[in-house]
Design brief:
Two copies of one chain form a homodimer. The first copy, chain A, has 599 residues and is of the alpha+beta class. Chain A has 19 helices and twelve strands. Chains A and B meet through helix 9, helix 10, helix 11, helix 12 and helix 15 of A and helix 9, helix 10, helix 11, helix 12 and helix 15 of B.
Chain lengths: 599, 599
């Protein structure tokens, strides 16, 4: 059984070709990083993942967190891992030097997340959550809050969380009812209940810092009355000592997968003694949270991509070593061959690569835009592109990842269904991704209901420009001409479908327009990933044409071209069916009466 | 939370409309059963499933079988259930009166399997395996073997199994190496090892009877040297006492789902004292086994259908009661609505019904053909149709069932991912079905490589006749005209695609022809299920037009028509993309060199 959970060669290829394709005007957005320095970081991350995270991949699943007398106990390695990630600067890396950080570009952070999540998704989640929460405090919090919370969080001693969901407010965040009553300037008494809080409490850290949405007493109802607070488990008193902040763990959820991370329910202010500290302006909580949410969504997409990647490497190893059957056209008495020689098995492996490598490439592309915007916040083009593609980068890996891991499992036959191999765990770990940080349905409404129409469709126009540039580049390679043509045709179909939906909106209203938004998102994903594959194919062709000679490199680039070819012949065409469904929709999903479901 | 795991109304609708549509010439194949008698059986089965099987659905998963000192311990209810199923005649029901059976038609048995599997898939598997094994003994075994084995098996005291797979022979059955050395006429010394044997040993019965494939010493290599044996765990000695037969349990597999049934590895003849008794003629074992395998494959399809159905009912209940969000076009301050009112949620529910009810209908259709063939074994048309559609009836529910249960889970959001609700277990239980009794890849090769081409394509022609008859009937209902046209167009696409693949076979050989067989199977499934939906829509229309008046019935029939409409507008079009992929395949799944996967 292989210990390989990702391909460094492929990650480097994706990272460097994405960087190479970026507009050189913005190169400073990488904060001085070059190929060599980035490779060093990746190599160190892989080393840590191999030594500390991957060996306990199964153990963290088999021995999940427990809740005993209000205390959440997690795998003992969690404390060790968080301490190292703190001490060695992994958590602070993307923070400015003033916070002992390295100003590491987001793109590189995504690569690190990829490596860690492929090694052990549950183990990787803790620090990812802390980074997100700390970034929120850095961006919107007062200097006083920063001084208290950032150092221990970046040191891996305190856990950060995002506390949004409530029992009656999940997708409908605007309905949340956790209350904040003013005590002192910036200080509020918090009361309420939150559920589904990842790493919401555990004994791998000394304190937990919830970035929490709540409603200030008297605030307007709905999304515009929500504010953001820091609500720690232990709060510093006037002497600077940590005292109990009246945050109680009510439950931990027992889950299908992602079992190494505790998902908790918490109750706030049971004894009337829970303090929350306002972050940013009152009633602007959703705005602030969504700034972080966007990168959290990319991170979910990357988690899904990483899990699919790890499952693929398990499947590949099995297919290369498992002997079963023989070529149809060969002699009947030939010895059995490795199953990778069967076209049906190759198809399954090609599919897995098409999904996971395509998704990786897309998220790194989004990372580049994040970095550009960090330094040049007024670059509207990249802002709109990032906004447009975030729901795709979150959902495509999450939804297609289910199919991809399912195919990994299928490659192993009966063994895939057994705990002896890691794929069944990947299958379970994967299934959270279309749910957390906004379900696929929510992403679809975001894409079609907000992003496609914002600024009169400007984002879609920018995307088309990006794709046109890619096609032009690819078209220079003879072998890629037909792929470029297929992408051009796909863009045409996307435009036609979007237009048809726009007409539907005018004729029948917003509900009809959005009824099948999820299918639109799926179709959109197929095209966007085709664009990524065309870009990768162009980069691979260039590498081959400009003298790649080392055999392993040549095979790698040729493999890339085959997967691209597979994507265009076997995956992209599915968008036409989706377009057909959308254009010819007769409104059945809108019209089905609820009472017709009974019986 | 609902305790409902299936809809009796829908099962009766499917059963009775399938029976009503059958050629009346063959009505005797139902062995005297009519609507009323069948409904009584279904009602009794549901009663048993509700009282004895469903209440331990979760418990059997959470407390899986253990192997201790060579003994497999299962949930104590297994013995009780098997005893009742034996005592009350459920196991013997499909057997002839001479074996205390009822000559129950297979169609009705499928319905019972559906009810039991929807209630608790693991609990339902035990008796299903015994019935299959006992049928093999009845069909091919000597009277002496029948007299020894059938009574205790049909009484639920002895477990039957199918022991085919070996560590090095799974999909490639012809390579199995378990040996049988002749001792006395019909009696052989067995030695070898088998894996993945469902219910291969457990303490819920007094004995286990393996229907086992092995190679008689000196037999030719490959599939034509394989014979079928009865290999009991305990064998009767000359005095009729049961003595140890040298069958050792080597392991039980720890699995993703389907955890209430032990899947075992067994070693045979370690001490040189394992006896096997030949069933049927030497070297004809695969032929005999495949007679049973066909109905086992339908049973797998039905298991998948049942699991998808149970998951759907959980999702439906949740969507009807969970309040979240409000209509896009309604007032912002309206109270939250039940999520079933959101079109995206309706779409997910419609999808689940489209898959599970379509699959149920197809398998019952196959059941009718089984029954006709049981009484009229020379009816070539039905023989060919059954052969053609068995791989579809096995694979469509298994593969699409994964998506269906995944959508059930999605309906519950974060709760769907938690053990508090049954859908996560359904998600795990479902995943075995594309693997056991022949993987999807194997079914695809069977369909395209054998069934489509057998007797010069005669089966496909018969299928088209059946579909034509259905379209004619449906076309009489104004509202179904466009669906009938869509099906006609789909048949055209199927024919065109099949022809294109035939040309490919001639030009490039069998390997190219079969390379994407799995996609062909998927496309085939879409069309076959459309045909089933058209038939159901016609039956529902007729019921409405001929005076259905009870409100619950009217809603049910109208619901059926909506789901049919959904299937034709949202699912069937996907076949066009698959046809496009197959017709335009450039052979990439064949040509990808194995060494291009590394890196």
């Amino acid at each position: 059984m292989t210990d390989k959970f990702m391909s460094m060669k492929n990650l480097q290829f994706s990272l460097h070709s994405t960087v190479a394709a970026m507009d050189k005007t913005y190169l400073e957005a990488l904060n001085g990083h070059d190929k060599k320095s980035m490779d060093m970081v990746l190599s160190a991350a892989l080393d840590f993942a191999q030594k500390e995270m991957h060996p306990i991949f199964e153990e963290m699943d088999r021995i999940p967190p427990t809740l005993l007398a209000g205390k959440v106990q997690v795998h003992p390695a969690v404390r060790r891992i968080l301490k190292t990630l703190g001490d060695d600067g992994w958590i602070s890396a993307v923070f400015p030097e003033s916070w002992d950080g390295d100003d590491m570009p987001s793109t590189l952070l995504h690569c690190i997340n990829f490596i860690f999540a492929a090694a052990n998704y549950s183990a990787s989640a803790y620090s990812g959550l802390t980074i997100g929460a700390a970034r929120l405090i850095l961006t919107f919090g007062s200097r006083a809050l920063q001084d208290i919370y950032l150092p221990p969080m970046l040191a891996g001693k305190w856990q950060g969380t995002m506390a949004l969901t409530e029992p009656d407010a999940g997708s409908s965040l605007g309905d949340l009812s956790t209350m904040a009553a003013p005590l002192d300037p910036g200080v509020y008494a918090i009361s309420g209940e939150k559920v589904f809080i990842s790493a919401g409490d555990h004994d791998g850290v000394d304190n937990v810092v919830h970035l929490m949405l709540a409603r200030i007493k008297g605030a307007p109802p709905g999304p515009k009355g929500i504010s953001l607070f820091v609500v720690p488990k232990l709060r510093p008193d006037d002497q600077g000592d940590l005292v109990d902040n009246d945050v109680t763990v009510t439950q931990i959820f027992h889950k299908l997968g992602y079992r190494g991370t505790p998902i908790t329910g918490i109750r706030l202010g049971e004894k009337g003694n829970c303090r929350g500290y306002l972050v940013g302006e009152p009633h602007r909580g959703l705005f602030s949270m969504f700034k972080m949410m966007n990168s959290a969504r990319l991170e979910v997409g990357m988690g899904a991509t990483a899990i699919a990647t790890a499952a693929y490497h398990s499947a590949l190893d099995y297919c290369q070593t498992r002997k079963q059957g023989r070529a149809i056209t060969g002699p009947r008495d030939a010895p059995q061959c490795a199953i990778i020689q069967h076209p049906d098995v190759k198809r399954m492996l090609l599919f897995q690569r098409a999904i996971s490598e395509g998704a990786l490439s897309l998220i790194l592309q989004c990372g580049i835009w994040e970095d550009i915007l960090e330094r040049y916040p007024h670059e509207k083009k990249y802002h709109l592109l990032l906004e447009l593609l975030t729901p795709v980068a979150k959902s495509f890996p999450s939804e297609m990842g289910i199919h991809s891991v399912s195919q990994s499992l299928q490659c192993l036959g009966g063994y895939g269904y057994c705990e002896d191999f890691p794929v069944e765990q990947h299958f379970r770990d994967m299934r959270i991704h279309p749910i957390h940080e906004g379900t696929t349905g929510i992403q679809a409404m975001d894409l079609l209901g907000r992003k496609v129409v914002m600024e009169k469709g400007k984002a879609l126009q920018f995307l088309k420009e990006e794709m046109d540039a890619c096609m032009e580049k690819a078209g220079k390679h003879k072998a890629l001409e037909s792929m470029a043509r297929d992408l051009a045709a796909a863009i045409g179909v996307l435009e036609k479908t979007t237009l048809a939906l726009g007409t539907l909106a005018m004729e029948k209203g917003a509900e009809a327009y959005l009824a099948d938004a999820t299918l639109y998102l799926e179709m959109f994903g197929h095209i966007v990933i085709a664009w990524q594959w065309l870009g990768m194919a162009a980069a691979a062709s260039t590498a081959l044409e400009t003298g790649a000679s080392k055999k392993s490199n040549v095979l790698f680039y040729e493999g890339k071209l085959h997967v691209a070819r597979y994507y265009f012949s076997h995956e992209l065409p599915k968008m036409n069916a989706l377009s057909h469904i959308l254009i010819n929709s007769d409104g059945v999903t809108l019209e089905m009466p609820e009472n017709c479901f009974t019986g």
